[in-house]
Design goal:
By secondary structure, the chain is an all-alpha fold. Helix content is about 75%, strand content about 0%. The chain has helices spanning about 5-25, 30-65, 75-80. It is elongated and about 55 Å long. The two termini are about 25 Å apart.
């Protein structure tokens, strides 16, 4: 995946995240809808972390003179375990 594709995916996920956050407030009295929104929001957050991690890997490899295509998408547990 190229940097532009990753950036486009990040933009789509951020837009979905904003939409879901708006739904959370509207769905605050609808338990099932709120639960669905919360679950999807968590999945979006994890996918965003994975995309940002991949983009950082690619940039680091490029800066080091290596092939950015050698960057690998890391699993959820790995990217969620990073300290912020």
């Amino acid at each position: 995946m190229k940097d532009e594709s990753i950036a486009e995916k990040i933009e789509r996920l951020v837009a979905e995240e904003h939409e879901l956050r708006g739904h959370e407030e509207a769905d605050s009295t609808h338990t099932d809808a709120l639960e669905t929104d919360t679950e999807r929001l968590r999945a979006v957050d994890v996918e965003l972390d994975r995309c940002w991690d991949l983009l950082r890997q690619r940039r680091a490899l490029l800066e080091a003179g290596a092939d950015p295509d050698d960057a690998q998408v890391r699993d959820d547990d790995t990217v969620e375990g990073y300290l912020q």
